[in-house]
Every structure is written in structure tokens, then in C-alpha cells.
């Protein structure tokens, strides 16, 4: 297992956002987290990335217990994420936004950086080359010098994914990656996620409301409702499960 959550509870004051949730993701799996607004999906992401501590329960990444670690340590171990609301640096170019992801792998002294010497310029050159390779894989290398926030919504989401990939993750967490995309963009994104999984052997955990996207992409899904797990299994079975339909999918089934 690449990731394992055991009996997670999370309370915010009087609100139980997550109630006794356990699940595990296998290596090279694409796993979907779905459920209505406020179900606790983003809270689970924040627990996995170390932004929230669970009230109780444990999180293991590649068999190592990580629920007590700070977010930057967890990035170093190999978990990267994107956000529901895109978080790019507006004054920076696409390339510069992606280069931020490489910080953890660049080792040089402040003195070397100041003089643009030795390891600094070598590390900088290597990081730029690797950033271009990622941008090429995502078909946005031609936009490297554009201001990140001048791009279309779909392209900005790709820049966020590029920045996450720059940290060289083993597990990628995507929070509503297809939100706001048209069907051509979301088909393109699905191909990209398959490509990341197949060629880079990165496991993917994603939150998504677009059930067609989830059906196409995910090996397994977990459905949350008010912090409780109401289903875990194949997406095709989820859409036929009565509890899932009444909690979440009524509209989806009626419209498809
Ligand atoms: N920092 C916080 N402080 C207090 N309550 C919080 C906090 N973060 C989340 N919650 C509460 O926890 C519950 C779960 O919220 P969460 O954002 O995880 O849901 P979600 O499934 O990601 O919803 P959405 O699909 O709208 O993003 C909600 O009741 C929310 O108000």
C-alpha cells in the first residue's frame, strides 16, 4: 500500500468532519474521493498532507507513520497536491511557478546562490531542464514564459499539476482537477492523469464531482457523506448503490 488511513476522526469544535474513516491506496492506483459538499473530502486531504492533525487515528505513507509530521516533511517524503482554488503566484511566469516545486531538491549555499556559482548554477540549470520536460509532458511548454494567471482556467490547472510533479511525488493529490473545464479540456486532463500514472508510476488520489470523469479514470472510489464512509469499491458499482444515489447521485443518474 502506498497510503493507508486508519480509523481517522476529525472534530472542529462541535462538528465531526470525519468519522471513523479508513482506506488504503495501492501503488499505481487512481482512487477517487466523492460525496456532497461538506462531506469532509478536503479535510481528509489536509490530514494526509499534514495541514490538519487528526483528532484520532493514524496515517501511513509507504508503511511510515506520517500523521505527526509537518507539511514540508510530507512533501519531501513524496506526497504532492493541488488545490480546489488554484494557487499560483500571479506575478510569476509559468516556468517560475513550476521551479518553486524543485526547491526541495536544490542544494546550495546562500553564498553560491549570491555569486551564481558552482552548485547553484548547475542546480538551477538542471531544475530548468526538468521543469521544461514536465511542461512538455503537459503540452504547455510553449507557455513557459507567459504570466501564469493570464492563462485559461484549464491551463492554470495544468501549471498547478506541473508544480506538484516538480516535487517528484510518489502520490499526487488532486482537489477537483476538472472543475470549470469543458469536455475537451477534461478529456485531455484524463489522458494526462493516465499518462502520469502509467509512465511515472505515480499513484493518484482525487476529489471530483464530475462523475463521468471519475468513472472513466478511477480504479476505485470512496463515497463520504457527513464525514462517514457510505461506499468503497468500483465507480460503476457506486453509481448503482442506493445509499450513494440518495446521498449524492440522484441528479447524476437522472441526467445521464
Ligand atoms: N478549518 C475548519 N474549521 C472548522 N470547520 C471546518 C474546517 N474545515 C472544514 N470544516 C468543516 O468540516 C466539514 C467538512 O468540510 P470539507 O471542506 O472537508 O468538505 P468537502 O467534502 O471538501 O466539501 P466541498 O465539496 O464543498 O469542498 C464541513 O462541515 C466544514 O464546515
From TrEMBL:
**GO molecular function per UniProt:** ATP binding; ATP hydrolysis activity; L-isoleucine transmembrane transporter activity; L-phenylalanine transmembrane transporter activity; L-valine transmembrane transporter activity
Q: Does the keyword Cell wall biogenesis/degradation apply?
A: no
What keyword terms does UniProt attach to this protein? ATP-binding, Nucleotide-binding, Transport
User: What InterPro entries does its record include?
Assistant: AAA+_ATPase, ABC_AA/LPS_Transport, ABC_transporter-like_ATP-bd, ABC_transporter-like_CS, BCA_ABC_TP_C, P-loop_NTPase
Short name of one Pfam family: ABC_tran
Q: Where does it sit, as one GO cellular component term? A: plasma membrane
**What are its GO biological-process terms?**
D-alanine transmembrane transport; L-alanine transport; L-isoleucine import across plasma membrane; L-valine import across plasma membrane
Q: What is this protein called?
A: High-affinity branched-chain amino acid ABC transporter ATP-binding protein LivG
Amino acid at each position: 500500500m502506498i497510503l493507508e488511513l486508519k480509523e481517522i476522526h476529525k472534530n472542529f469544535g462541535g462538528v465531526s468532519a470525519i468519522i471513523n474513516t479508513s482506506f488504503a491506496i495501492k501503488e499505481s492506483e487512481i482512487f477517487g474521493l466523492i460525496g456532497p459538499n461538506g462531506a469532509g473530502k478536503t479535510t481528509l486531504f489536509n490530514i494526509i498532507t499534514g495541514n490538519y492533525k487528526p483528532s484520532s487515528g493514524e496515517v501511513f505513507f509507504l508503511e511510515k507513520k506520517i500523521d505527526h509530521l509537518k507539511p514540508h516533511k510530507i512533501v519531501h517524503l513524496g506526497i504532492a497536491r493541488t488545490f480546489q482554488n488554484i494557487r499560483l503566484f500571479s506575478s510569476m511566469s509559468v516556468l517560475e511557478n513550476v521551479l518553486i516545486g524543485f526547491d526541495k531538491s536544490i542544494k546550495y549555499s546562500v553564498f553560491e546562490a549570491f555569486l551564481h556559482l558552482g552548485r547553484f548554477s548547475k542546480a538551477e540549470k538542471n531544475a530548468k531542464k526538468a521543469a521544461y520536460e514536465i511542461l512538455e509532458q503537459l503540452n504547455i511548454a510553449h507557455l513557459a514564459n507567459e504570466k501564469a494567471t493570464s492563462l485559461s482556467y484549464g491551463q492554470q490547472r495544468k501549471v498547478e499539476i506541473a508544480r506538484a510533479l516538480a516535487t517528484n511525488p510518489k502520490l499526487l493529490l488532486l482537489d477537483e482537477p476538472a472543475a470549470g473545464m469543458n469536455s475537451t479540456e477534461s478529456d485531455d486532463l484524463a489522458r494526462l492523469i493516465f499518462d502520469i500514472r502509467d509512465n511515472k508510476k505515480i499513484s493518484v488520489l482525487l476529489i471530483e464531482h464530475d462523475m463521468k470523469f471519475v468513472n472513466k479514470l478511477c480504479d476505485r472510489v470512496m463515497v463520504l457523506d457527513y464525514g462517514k464512509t457510505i461506499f468503497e469499491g468500483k465507480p460503476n458499482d457506486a453509481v448503482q448503490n442506493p445509499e450513494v444515489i440518495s446521498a449524492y447521485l440522484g441528479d447524476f443518474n437522472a441526467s445521464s
